[in-house]
Structure formats: structure tokens, C-alpha cells
Amino acid sequence: MLFFGPDGERQPERDVRERKAKAICAQCPVRAECLDYALSRPEKYGTWGGLNEDERASERRRRMRRAASAGISAA
């Protein structure tokens, strides 16, 4: 599977798998919707909307900061 890694996956294999998954995401017509879905839920694993777990956590924090600075609640 490209979008979800197997248990015990080593970093070099993960890097290759994620790069392939992100290449598919880059061409996907619903990438933004997929990412919004993953960010609005506690999706802890896998590649969603072209972002891995760490990247989604960063994006979630960025959106929360942006929403807070605009005076609205983040979704």
C-alpha cells in the first residue's frame, strides 16, 4: 500500500512510499477535499491530501493559528 505503511516499516522504505503516494496526490482532483477531511478528524496515520502525519500536524497548527489571529474558530 502506498498511502499507509506496514508495521515495522523502516525510514528509507517509508520515504520512498510517501514520495510515490504524494506524486499520486499531486495529480488528484480532490486533493484539497481529502486534506480538509483528514485535518478535520484525528487521522493519525497515512498520507492524506498529499501530506504525511507530521506535515498534517504542522498544517493543523498553522490553520489554528491563522484562525485564531482572524478571530474565528478553526475547523
From TrEMBL:
The residues forming a coiled coil are: none
Co-factor remark: Binds 1 [4Fe-4S] cluster per subunit. Following nitrosylation of the [4Fe-4S] cluster binds 1 [4Fe-8(NO)] cluster per subunit.
Q: Which UniProt keywords apply?
A: 4Fe-4S, Cytoplasm, Disulfide bond, DNA-binding, Iron, Iron-sulfur, Metal-binding, Transcription, Transcription regulation
Could you tell me which residues belong to the region Disordered?
48-75
Under Pfam families, the record lists:
Whib
| PTM entry text | Upon Fe-S cluster removal intramolecular disulfide bonds are formed.
User: Which cofactors must be present for this protein to function?
Assistant: [4Fe-4S] cluster
Q: Which residues cross the membrane?
A: none
* Localization: Cytoplasm
Keyword Transcription regulation, does the record have it?
yes
4Fe-4S Wbl-type domain: residues covered: 1-58
Where the protein is mainly located, per its record? cytoplasm
Q: Which family does it belong to?
A: Belongs to the WhiB family.
Its biological purpose: Acts as a transcriptional regulator. Probably redox-responsive. The apo- but not holo-form probably binds DNA.
Protein name, as recorded: Transcriptional regulator WhiB
